[in-house]
Amino acid sequence: MKDFINAYSWINIHYLLQGLWITVVVSLASIAGSYVIGSVLGIIRYVNIKVISPLVGLVIDIIRNLPLLLIIFFTYFGLPNLGFRPSSVWATILAMVVFESTMIAEIVRSGIIAVDPGQMEGARANGLTYVQALRKIILPQAMKKMIPALVSQFISLIKDTSLATIIVLPDLMHNAQIVYGQNSTYILPMFLMLAIMYFIVCYALSLVSRSLEKRMG
Amino acid sequence: MKKLFRLVSVIISSLALLVVLSACGSKALSAQNVVTRAKQSNTITWGVKADTKLFGLMDVKNGQIKGFEVDLAKAMTKQILGPKGKADFVQVTSSTRMPLLKNGNIDAIMATMTITPEREKQVDFTRSYFDAGQSLLVKKGSSVKNVKDLNKKGATVLGVVGSNSVQNVAKFAPKAKVLQLSDYAQAMTALRSGQGEALTTDNGILAGMAVENPGYVLVGGSFTKEPYGIAVNKGQTEFKADLNDALTKVEESGEYNKILKKWFGNVPGLNYKGMER
Amino acid sequence: MIAIFHNYGGLLLQGFGQTLLCSVIALFFSLIIGSMFAIFETTPIKFLRVIARIYIEVFRNIPLLVITMFFFVVIPMFVAKISGFAAGTIGLTIYTSAFIAETVRAGIQSVDPGQMEGARANGLSFWQAMRYIVLPQAFRYVIPPLGNQFINLVKNSSVLAFVAGFDLMYQGNVIASDSLSTMSTYVCIGILYLIITLPLSYWMRYLEKKLA
């Protein structure tokens, strides 16, 4: 009990909250970036443009099937070879955007496919152009279908930022490790707090998604 | 029809191409002259440890790294760039420091790194700024008294990925199994949770751990000599010369001894007077 | 790159083997545990449903790294010594089983409820109906998503690198810090992961199309 009281001193909690802040900021930036790029890639893959779509498809499949940890190493160690010196925050965001965009592209593509193909034909028959039909008829329906998959992908993204401790991103996991690394009686309290903080953030997001589904459904 | 998408994809692919081309145009950071770049940006980026008490340890209160090496790096930066020169610190571990330097994420490594012939093939070292020796940390009352006690089947020694001391274990206790953790905090945690009988690395680092973790003691004296040097990339001869100069000036001004006393003045069993310069 | 394969072939092979081994072990146990909780979720017994809900929500919302480090760091302090490989495999099993439970539950619920009622009307108990009628149909339906879970499992097994689990990623870090050709080492590691995941991923897409 004494360990817990000491471990949860304001200094330590404050340090953890700083880490949580980094986790949230990095996650939000990555979610925004990968949502935009992933949607574009997913649509490119769906509309099947000669040469480009299969090429995009191949790149997506390769990146999607690699561990995120490896992508993190690539951006962190690779960028200086191209003349940039990334901070661990930017390296993580870049890695996250690259990796998650491919995951989201898959979700978007299968979301569009899941919309009845007859809809497209009907819209075209009613005089809409291909792009109009896609934008006005297909995508809004696909969006609704995609929400659960997208949200669980975003939750994965938040959890996976913890992997970036390996390139010393000062996130929640990293800061907790620093705290318990300096005093091992703090190990158990720190793990409990880690679980609680991650759970709150991720569970809150899944609750939001559920209410969103209800409202749209 | 599909024009919009064709347009979008053309834009994306040309952007990608642009990034690649501009990247090819600019030189890899590790190949640029560090001194020129440091003077332009008025900053030297150092790789230091953040999990090693006395050398470089993260201060939870303000999120800054503090220790002997950090203070020495600051003093040397001021010698090279003038009193307004800025020292940036990137947290490294034994396994990440070499890749970080080689790829250009950092300019120099000052992270309890022993000068060895093996490493000198890969990087250039300044002259030694601290003389350490490898030792063992065990639980108080452990049957392990020196490195020979570990030379048996079933013994597990804990170390850190990429550290010199791990390779030394193979020399002094070839029968022991070695577990390489990612940093010293992890290694200490592993020792506490009984993943191995002993943790091995340099005495200065272990002294810091023994201070932090009562119930664990240094045993067996030091069985190797480990002079610490600052590592820079091959070909950075100007930077290396500047660093050696700066080290000499810091030593002559008495600043070195002040920093040494600040960090090692109160460590039981460590005679810092003998290490003064 | 060829030099990496040539000089460190043994280590790479060992890492490849460990990665496969821990993925297969974790898949086996997470299938059992995941199906168990999926059945709990569909039983009429409220207590079991609550237990399953808590298990799934907790472990789906905590990072794999936290679970794995818990077994590597905390459990040895209070219970018993666990190797990095075991800690990693246990962490992967618990984490993945929560996802598999969700997948299998969706599969069970996709089977027409009339089937269960019909089976019960014909005198089968809930468990018998589940075992002989519902689960076999559900599994056919969930094979593609399960395959994708396995791919995730293989990728997630890189978490063993954090706990000295001697897997592919751990060996990658060791080789990178030894050879100092960071990028080509990680390219080699990437290729080895793709050898496992890429064919699986295409196979699953094919199955999805066939079943749909």
From TrEMBL, chain A:
GO BP terms, alphabetized: amino acid transport
Source organism: Secundilactobacillus odoratitofui DSM 19909 = JCM 15043
InterPro entries linked to this entry: AA_ABC_transptr_permease_3TM, ArtM/GltK/GlnP/TcyL/YhdX-like, MetI-like, MetI-like_sf
Main localization of the protein described in the UniProt heading: membrane
Membrane topology: Multi-pass membrane protein
Keyword Transmembrane helix on entry: yes
PANTHER family per UniProt: INNER MEMBRANE AMINO-ACID ABC TRANSPORTER PERMEASE PROTEIN YHDY, MEMBRANE COMPONENT OF AMINO ACID ABC TRANSPORTER
NCBIfam families: HEQRo_perm_3TM
Protein name: Glutamine ABC transporter membrane protein
Keywords tagged on the record: Amino-acid transport, Cell membrane, Membrane, Transmembrane, Transmembrane helix, Transport
PROSITE patterns: ABC_TM1 (PS50928)
Annotated TM spans: 20-43, 55-77, 89-108, 146-167, 187-208
Family membership: Belongs to the binding-protein-dependent transport system permease family.
UniProtKB/TrEMBL annotation, chain B:
GO BP of this protein: amino acid transport
Organism annotation: Secundilactobacillus odoratitofui DSM 19909 = JCM 15043
GO molecular function: ligand-gated monoatomic ion channel activity
Name used for this protein in its record: Glutamine ABC transporter, substrate binding protein
Alphabetized UniProt keyword annotations: Signal, Transport
Domain Ionotropic glutamate receptor C-terminal: 52-266
InterPro entries the UniProt entry points to: Bact_solute-bind_prot3, Iontro_rcpt_C, Solute-binding_3/MltF_N
GO CC terms: extracellular region; membrane; outer membrane-bounded periplasmic space
Superkingdom classification of source: Bacteria
Residue intervals of the Solute-binding protein family 3/N-terminal domain: 43-267
Sequence similarity: Belongs to the bacterial solute-binding protein 3 family.
Signal peptide: 1-31
Automatic annotation (TrEMBL), chain C:
Entry keyword Amino-acid biosynthesis: no
Domain (ABC transmembrane type-1) ranges: 16-204
A GO term for molecular function: transmembrane transporter activity
Segments traversing the membrane: 16-40, 61-79, 85-104, 159-177, 183-203
Name listed for the protein in its UniProt record: Polar amino acid ABC transporter inner membrane subunit
CDD domains found in the cross-reference section: TM_PBP2 (cd06261)
Originating organism: Secundilactobacillus odoratitofui DSM 19909 = JCM 15043
Annotated Pfam families: BPD_transp_1 (PF00528)
